[in-house]
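A common beginner's mistake is to predict each chain separately and then try to dock the pieces by hand. The better habit, illustrated here, is to supply every component at once so that their relative placement is modeled jointly.
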Amino acid sequence: MAQMTMIQAITDALRTELKNDENVLVFGEDVGQNGGVFRATEGLQEEFGEDRVFDTPLAESAINGLAVGLSLQGFRPVPEIQFFGFVYETMDQISGQMARLRYRSGNTENMPITIRSPFGGGVHTPELHADSLEGLIAQQPGIRVVIPSTPYDAKGLLISSIRNNDPVVFLEHMKLYRSFREDVPEEEYTIDLDKADVKREGKDVTLIAYGAMVHACLKAADELEKENIHAEVIDLRTVSPIDVDTIVESVKKTNRAVVVQEAQRQAGIAANIVAEIQERAILHLEAPVLRVAAPDTVYPFSEAEEVWLPNYKDIIESVKTSINF
Amino acid sequence: MKHVLNSVEEQFEMFQILNEDGEVVNQDDVPALSDDELKELMKRMVYTRILDQRSIALNRQGRLGFYAPTAGQEASQLASQFALEQDDFILPAYRDVPQLIWHGLPLYQAFLFSRGHFHGNQFPEGVNALSPQIIIGAQYIQAAGVALGLKKRGKKAVAVTYTGDGGTSQGDFYEGINFAGAYNAPAIFFVQNNHFAISVPVEKQTAAKTLAQKAVAAGIEGIQVDGMDPLAVYVATKHARERAINNEGPMLIETVTYRYGPHTMAGDDPTRYRTDDLDNEWEKKDPLVRFRKYLEGKGLWSEEQENSVIDQAKEDIKKAIKKADSQPKQKVTDLISFMYEEMPPNLKEQMEDYIEKESK
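With all components supplied together, the output reads:
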């Protein structure tokens, strides 16, 4: 088994699917000869040719419009939006078009599109590169939002997303691209969409997160362990729609929950999870379900990132609030 | 400064074959259509004019839903579709239902689309088209994608899309023609310039004197065509199609036309932004009148033939409305099952709720 970073696992998944299915097309700004600004598509054009892996002109709306059109000819497009902060330019093609086309066509058309895009903070990018905008897409039925937190998950989830006949926004947290390596099988494998993953078992409190915040939760859980507080950590993997069953099952066991997201607090993924928990498990709760999230400001300039982003200490504090409630 | 280029618009002369009186003004470009083909094109225009009149009436009776009137634009719509092959893929805007019908969409489904029933959009196998686009310009970039797909598949077919004059102001318009140009993809982009985007006149839409000239910036071919002249529209489309399938790139076709009716039947009142004089001026250019004169001159059309088409149209419409009426009512469970191929857990749960509700 090879040790891979998340970016290597993503490249490996793309290579696997380009090999498996000649209908898979990879395209976007700088993805060709340059191999993508993060090198996610490194070497793929050389290996599969310009017909399969190609650069686009610089226009996000048309990149996803192209994906819709190519799907109508039976292709399986994997467009890249260079940074998810640019998604506003292409909201119509995502939410207005590809997410609605199965319905609009009376279930006669598939939209097997996987939009890959880097997102998330902490790597000192210019403005509008680092926002956590998954909530925008989570509001839209007809499309999935998948966010891996490890190299292993990135490969399996990306392969599953590409093989899925509905559109997926596949968000890759920039801070996780090269932060660590782990064993990733060289052969192909898939990981179920719409299923959360219990990353760590515990009996005292459930921490629910996705993306980079999974690692903040795991770190918090390590620290809490020293104080004899055993936290269960759930990685959502698919943030829209969410796997409510896994969450509720855990909360019924631990009776406490803290939902963690890097995005701003208002109207996000975490708010939805809190609502689901209180509807389904209120009598199991020993404390209000708490949220750890960024403040309701715009994503800050890079020097303010570290003070703005939620971290493991914030999580520990919320867990203690819950325990001491 | 001598290096400043002021304009390219004088290079875009409007292409015309038949003048308002149905006389050939451009013998060189008269297409080699057989008598039967000429009659067929006339038949389609008459039929569609009746369909428009009936649709407006049915809408007023509450028997149709969303409807965007088409009278005045028959040459732009039908002569362009007439130049296509069945394998060609149409990405229409909301006023372009007639092209879908002549591309093979059964009339009762067009009515169901108008009513807002999903079966209207379940196109039969072989009808290569999308349902009408509502977002202005979104279809332009999708057309670039369909065209690129056709090229990758090695098909001898084109993607054909339509927008209006207002659509040319959208970013997606530029992105679409630019992408298709960059990929040399077989696409034909129509701008049906009917001079008003709902109420805003084309003069307020852009400083460009023609919309065809916008092709220049994308590096693709462009042409301005008399959109009330069916032969000119047909020839321009045929030319664009030939080029596209021979890998010579996409084309932008501006058809200069007019809609006689309101923007849609949802309360638009054209008297707020158009004068009777302007309406009258355009009605003199009517595509049916001029084509009828042309065909009568060739001994190919008579009042009898016209009446028989009108009767046929009315009969078909009656039957189609009846068939549309018999379509089962839509359910929330249909909607839920059309969201994803594999139903996620939240919808599975909601499905159970609605199965129960709908069984009551």
